[in-house]
Amino acid sequence: MRRRDFTTMVGGMALACARPATAQTSAKTWRLGTLSPGAPISENSPNGKVLLATLAQHGYTLGGNLTYEARAAAGQIAKIPPLLQDLKASGVDAIVAIGYPPALAAKTTGIPTVVAFGVGDPVATGLIDSLAHPGGSITGISDMAGPLSAKRLSLLKELAPKTSRVAMLWNRDDLGMSLRYEASAAVARSLDITVQPLGVREPDDFEGVFEAMNRQPPDAILMVSDSLTTLNRKRVFDYAAAKRLPAIYEYDFLVRDGGLMSYGSDLAESFDRAAALVDRIFKGAKPSELPFEQPTRYPFVINLKTAKAMGLEIPPNVLARADEVIE
């Protein structure tokens, strides 16, 4: 059952389709690379489709004046540098990256890079000089962890008012996600919520995380999403279901895959805007002069099927606020 059927996104795509394609005066074939720390942003993936559809509206036709090279590390961060060298050798004109480790590695190549999401605070990590004037070779889409974390925690409290202890899972080896955790933890303390810090560095660490929660049971879980936590999401879903723990995630694809609820940026919008930044780079703009942008849409999604399987009753006021309810 959908509450709002993502009409805003659909309307935005319709407007994009209505825009006349920008004529390309050059006979050049543009080469775009993508780099993900997890699964590849393939041509047929949801995010890849948005990226290429928006580029098509700007006049770049795959198989015509655009080639597309998707690379992914499958959770093995050590693979990122050679993947980047492969992209560089193929002569890409720009890279669309996901996450802080790929963005940091791309910075060393000097290839113009657009971060689509998952980079954390790019200023605090030293990735860029400022949001308004990034400097260097990187621009993209960012978000503010503090306000988003406050919203996620407030949604957990609305769902389960007695929540006072929240387990936070994040990748300790990802500086962007560690800073996101710290921002989330600071917000939690301001809301009188005790934080149970559960950082992981590799898949085997999840068993230790679950053991820690068995020893000191939290009231809820907040998972900070990067390639490591996302690739191990089913283990978190299963633990939360077995213990009947409310859990909130950062992106709606995690809820569609079995998580309870999410609040975070609309990835379709992020990839649409990333494509627009790529177009500007292809037209001669320097990433250093293109300000980082903030998402404007943050869908709240609930998986009612997951809630029912857990025996968890979702209050009517929480259901009414959801942008989408998955049954």
Automatic annotation (TrEMBL):
UniProt entry tagged with the keyword Transmembrane helix: no
Transmembrane segments: none
Keyword annotations: Signal
Top-rank lineage group of the source organism: Bacteria
Name of the featured protein: ABC transporter substrate-binding protein
Signal peptide annotation: 1-23
InterPro entries to which the protein is assigned, alphabetical: ABC_transpt-TYRBP-like, Peripla_BP_I
